[in-house]
Amino acid sequence: MSVVGNNRVGIPIVLLHDAEGAVITIETKRGELIRGLLFEAEDMMNLYIKKAVVLGPKPGAKRLVDQIYVRGTEIVFIVLPEMLRHAPMFDRITHWRKHGGAPPEGVGAAVGQAAA
User: Fold this and answer.
1) Which pTM value belongs to this model?
2) What residues are paired with 34 via a beta bridge?
3) What is the pLDDT of residue 65?
4) How far is it, in rounded angstroms, from Cα 86 to Cα 96?
5) Per DSSP, what are the bridge partners of residue 52?
6) What is the pLDDT of residue 45?
7) What tens digit of pLDDT does each residue of 17-35 get?
8) How far is CA 16 from the centre of its chain?
9) Which burial class, exposed, middle or buried, applies to 29 when counting CB atoms under 10 A from its CB (0-12, 13-18, 19+)?
10) Which residues of the chain have pLDDT under 50?
11) Do residues 14 and 89 lie in contact, with contact meaning Cβ atoms separated by under 8 Å?
12) Is 64 left (phi over 0), alpha (psi -120 to 50) or beta?
């Protein structure tokens, strides 16, 4: 289900973009936990994180890194801030479910045609 139109971006990706600028926690396939400020999220779930703390798979292994780039295929789990529960995206989803998938009024009214 696309929540932003016809560009086929789903709910998890939109939620990641909404989380930019917040502190998140990631678990990787290697067993590392990475916690830091989400600077940029790409549509393929590649994440650019600043001021990160990396907890290694071995107990006690802790590194502080200024910036880290995590490829989306290496991510197992992402913990997002609680404040995203009230993201505007969820209002659009509620509207679309209530009105059978119709876009909100005024959206896409004159797409592809010159207004007369």
Assistant:
1) 0.71
2) 26, 54
3) 96
4) 17
5) 65
6) 93
7) 888 999 999 999 999 999 9
8) 1
9) exposed
10) 1-2, 4
11) yes
12) beta
Strand 75-79 to 62-70 pairing: unpaired
Residue 106 CA, chain-centre distance (Å), reads 26
Full DSSP string of 73-116: GGEEEEE--GGGGG-HHHHHHHHHHHTTTPPPTTSSTTTTS---
Place of tokens 């916690």: 35
The token duo for 97 is 């479910």
**Which residues are within 8 A (CB) of 99 and not within 5 positions of it... i.e. 6 or more apart?**
none
Cα–Cα dist 99/89, whole Å? 16
The letter for the amino acid at 106 is G
Nearby residues of 58 by Cβ (< 8 Å), 6 or more positions away: none
